[in-house]
Design brief:
The structure holds 2 protein chains of 2 kinds.
Chain A: H1 2-10, H2 16-50, H3 67-73, H4 76-108, H5 114-129, H6 132-142, H7 148-155, H8 172-197, H9 201-209, H10 214-242, H11 246-251, H12 263-272, H13 277-305
Chain B: H1 2-38, H2 60-66, H3 69-102, H4 108-118, H5 123-136, H6 143-167, H7 172-179, H8 184-195, H9 197-213, H10 216-221, H11 230-240, H12 245-265, H13 267-276
Helix pairs in contact in B: 1-12, 2-12, 3-6, 3-9, 6-9, 7-8, 9-13, 11-12, 12-13
The chains are: A mainly alpha, B mainly alpha.
């Protein structure tokens, strides 16, 4: 322990009060150093990159101002990615909430026996433990044109012929969103289940005495009681989903012909497929600014909850 | 009247259990299908009509993975990186969490706010400068690059979790040690750490999960096959042997096994991690 030794050797020189004052910073030093090196400095670097002409590839890059931003913002593919990202994110957040809340309420229902509840809870969280690569591979198998989903839909008469879920430009973005809903709802379910269990039961008892229906109880007790949790997880989910990369990269790769291009894959391709690091940096800074503007409200909401 | 109440209750029961059953299918069928395909022969996977259980049970897919040193290497890499990341993260997070929980200092609030907001910084934004810096410092394609960069997303979580855990322990404990003449650090090491084992395990398990599942940094900051981690290995398998579905499924099962086991054994701890980010810090 480097700094405990240091603390001891400073002992005779520095008063007790000063040691008390600097002790917290000694404990926080590794964190502060790591986050400066891994977070603050890289952000400065990426902003600087975005204002130069092609960095990394070019040994002596020159300052070009906002040229890269202009190039990115006027790129049709970038605008398509913004649209796709927005659709993917908004739909994911809405359905994560619906599915997560439905599961949480089912698990929390009084008629469910405690053992059934705890076993099902373990199983319902399952999709969440898998990494994006594995989620992608499972669904590529299930949604394969000759796969089991097409077979089931056909035998139920819902679709006439096999659908190429990930390779038709009409279906791909919806298939991708569907998969992401499956992969992400447990986060809501767990948080909302904890929230439901925290609602005082006398609220419901009072409502029953007043003759409230199940829907009225849901509308006037459950939702208002859960809303601080809902707002905070939905904002966090919005920020994270907006940054999606792995799932898209592993299923459609942004294709067919940019039909599922999202900001993450667009930026990644600029950097690591076409080596336009400066343009990629500009795009990465735009994603950062978008994330931070949602994060601003998130952090403010979290502070208000304290 | 009594009969209708009974009737409503029965309906509620039926609807609830029907909902739970549908939910079970939705959540688990894909996972079950993956597992069943890993013990089928490759020709049986797209056989019509599709059957969940194989006609001829086979472990060939698993055999061929264990026989291939390249694939074993993916696992070794993942274990190594995730373990080192977990240990380092825990060390830093215990110090920081202890200080957040027990000290008051001027930069406490801003620092805490900064840690919460780092959770929202997009990995892709950091990836480009990381790549530039990693190449510049000749760390490209090394374990060190992965271990260091993984800490940017494990550390904020771990600090929030450890702070939360230390907050649940009474302050009198460490104050008693200090009255007895022990130092601050002594109180942490000899008193708080031993009784915080559940919190440390929860944080460790969650950190391991984050590190094991990481994709984009491993994809970009390593290059050679012998440096790849499990998620990237699976992706490569998907590219090279796109038609050997049973082997891909077996690889996916093996790739999620450590996490699945940790999850089943310590699911309580997982829940702590899942909610750590969204609950107030």
């Amino acid at each position: 322990m480097a700094f405990s030794k240091k603390e001891r050797s400073l002992h005779p020189l520095i008063s007790y009060r000063t040691r008390r004052a600097i002790a917290p910073y000694l404990y926080q030093a590794p964190t502060i150093i790591l986050l400066t090196v891994l977070m603050l400095y890289p952000i400065i670097v990426v902003v600087r990159y975005s204002l130069m002409d092609n960095v990394i590839m070019n040994k002596h890059p020159a300052f070009v101002g906002f040229q890269n931003y202009v190039a990115v913002l006027s790129d049709a593919t970038f605008r398509a990615s913004v649209g796709n990202t927005l659709y993917f994110t908004v739909m994911s957040v809405i359905f994560h909430l619906i599915v997560g809340l439905a599961f949480a309420m089912l698990l929390n229902a009084k008629v469910v026996k405690p053992l059934v509840r705890s076993v099902l809870r373990v199983l319902y969280i399952m999709p969440w433990v898998f990494t994006a690569t594995i989620i992608a591979i499972i669904w590529r198998l299930l949604l394969n044109p000759s796969g089991v989903v097409n077979y089931m839909l056909q035998s139920m008469g819902i679709i006439g012929e096999n659908i190429e879920w990930f390779s038709s430009s009409a279906a791909a973005i919806h298939a991708l969103t569907f998969v992401n809903i499956w992969a992400g709802y447990p986060f809501y379910m767990v948080s909302l289940l904890a929230g439901l269990q925290g609602i005082p039961s006398d609220l419901y008892e009072a409502a029953v005495i007043d003759g409230a229906s199940e829907f009225q109880k849901f509308r006037h007790i459950t939702i208002p009681q859960l809303s601080p949790i809902i707002i905070s997880i939905a904002m966090l989910d919005f920020i994270w989903t907006m940054q999606v990369f792995s799932l898209v990269w592993m299923t459609t790769g942004g294709g067919p012909i940019h039909a599922t291009e999202v900001l993450g894959t667009y930026t990644y391709k600029l950097a690591f497929s076409t080596y336009q690091f400066s343009m990629a940096s500009a795009s990465a800074v735009i994603i950062l600014v978008l994330s931070m503007s949602v994060a601003f409200f998130y952090v403010r909401h979290q502070k208000a909850r304290d | 009247m009594a009969r209708t109440i009974k009737g409503t209750k029965l309906i509620i029961r039926i609807v609830t259990y029907a909902g739970l059953a549908i939910g079970l299918g939705y959540a688990c069928f894909p996972v079950l299908w993956m597992f069943c395909c890993s013990i089928k022969s490759n020709t049986e996977i797209f056989a019509l009509p599709p059957k969940l259980l194989p006609k001829a049970f086979t472990l060939n897919a698993y055999h061929s993975i264990f026989a291939d040193p390249t694939k074993i290497r993916f696992f070794l890499n993942s274990y190594l990186v995730a373990t080192v990341v977990t240990l380092l993260t825990l060390f830093v997070a215990i110090l920081s969490g202890y200080s957040f929980s027990r000290h008051s200092f001027r930069l406490k609030k801003p620092l805490n706010l900064f840690i919460i907001s780092t959770q929202t910084v997009p990995p892709i934004t950091l990836l480009i400068p990381y790549f530039g810096l990693v190449v510049m410092f000749k760390l490209y394609n090394t374990y060190f690059a992965l271990i260091l960069t993984y800490m940017v997303f494990t550390l904020p979580y771990a600090i929030l979790m450890m702070t939360g855990y230390f907050n649940t322990l009474p302050k009198e404990l460490d104050e008693a040690v200090e009255v007895d003449g022990g130092s601050n650090f002594f109180a942490l090491r000899r008193v708080l750490v031993p009784i915080s084992v559940p919190g440390i395990v929860a944080t460790g398990v969650y950190t391991f999960l984050l590190a094991w599942n990481e994709f984009i940094f491993a994809l970009t900051l390593t290059k050679t096959t012998e440096m790849r981690t499990v998620p990237i290995g699976i992706q490569q398998l998907m590219g090279q042997h796109a038609y050997e579905w049973n082997e891909m499924m077996a690889m996916s099962i093996l790739g999620s096994l450590p996490i699945l086991l940790l999850y089943l054994i310590a699911q309580r701890y997982f829940l702590a991690g899942m909610t750590a980010g969204s609950v107030k810090a």
